Structure formats: C-alpha cells, structure tokens
Amino acid sequence: MTYAPKSERERFLSQPEFEKLLLAADDLGGDYAFMLVYAGGALGLRIGEAVALSRDNFKRLRENLVSVATLKRRGHPVEDVALDDESRELFQEYLAALRGRWLFPSTDSQSSGGHVSLRQANRLFKRVVLAAGLNPKFSYHALRHYRGLRLWQSTRDMKFVQLQLRHASMRHTPRYVHMDEKSRVAVARRVAPLRRR
Questions:
Q1: Are 121 and 36 in contact (CB under 8 A)?
Q2: Which residues of 144-170 are buried (b: 16+ CB within 10 A; e: fewer)?
Q3: Per-domain residue ranges for the chain?
Q4: Which residues pair with 82 in a beta bridge?
C-alpha cells in the first residue's frame, strides 16, 4: 500500500468546519457525539486518549485543568491540559448528567461497563464528518491539529502549544501550527537579523 505525502494525507479543519462538525454531532448523537468531537478540539486529544477519559481525569476541572494520559509517550505520563472557562462549563454539565465512570461509555450491548472502543469512536466520528458534509478523509486526529493551530493563532507561543499538545519534543509541534503566509512574514520580520548601519 502506498501513502500520499504527509501534507496531502492530513486534512486540517477551519473554524467553520469545526463548528459544522459540532452541529452535525449534536444532531446525530446528542451530547455523547458532541462531547466526543468537542474533547478532540478543546483538549487536542488523540482518539485513544479521548475514549479513555473518565471522571478521574477531571478532578482539577475547577482549576480549568484536565489530566490526560499521553499514550504516545513511554509509560503514558499523565499531564495537565488547560481549558478555557466555556470548555470547563461544558465538561461540568456533561459530567453532571453522566451516570458511569467513563465519559464515553461503550455503546456495545456486550460490553460490561467499559469505555467506547476505538473502532466505535472512529465509526461515530466518520458518521459525524459525513453528516457535516465534510471531506470523508478527515480523521479524529484533524481535531488535534485544529487545537494546535488555534493555540498558535491565539498565543504565538510554540512552547505553550507543545505543552498543551503534550509533545515530548518541540520538533513535532510546528506541523500542527500550519502558519499561513501572512503569519510567516510577521514572524520573519520579528526575528530578522540586525541591519548594518
């Protein structure tokens, strides 16, 4: 099997596309689907991290922090992700209405109280993407890129973006910011070498 270059394979969400996803998720699966999509966009989670969220991850929610086990790193270290006030309120409302341990409990009747599987979550996300009328090649990981780009646009602080996305190395973070031409020029002007007198 051959793969397209990374830049062609990955799809990146715009703000209007993210909003379309949220509307479609709400229509398609109510709070469950809405929050699954929202968790990816608000926390920058990988799908495996999202499905494994439980009430335990939200013990510091009053401080606008969510503890996330970073699955891509050895030992799965738990790191805090900062939230804005609106996101904190959405998670608080969702948690208040939740009856079990898992934020996204399994929808499989044969499951005994576990969280939704990666397969189930991916299928649900694909249904949301199609219902939103977006490119079916969007993956859940596009939500992580969306979060990275929004953080970059808001702060222009690459280290902050790295910490929020829980990257072990700074070398992974730039591919998440997708700087447009105007931004690249602005940064180049700020870091230009001193001119000769």
A1: yes
A2: bbbbbbbbbeeeeebeebbbbbbbeee
A3: 11-139
A4: 65
**Closest to 50 in 3D by CA, of 121, 153, 145, 107:** 121
CATH number among 1.10.443.10, 3.40.50.2000, 3.30.70.100, 3.40.1110.10, domain 11-139: 1.10.443.10
Q: Which parts of the chain have pLDDT scores under 70? A: 1-11, 72-75, 109-112, 178-197
105's tokens: 């409990």
pLDDT digits (tens, 9 = 90+) for 141-170: 999 999 998 998 888 898 999 889 988 888
pTM: 0.83
Q: How far is CA 137 from CA 31, 46, 61, 123, 142, in A?
A: 24, 16, 33, 13, 10
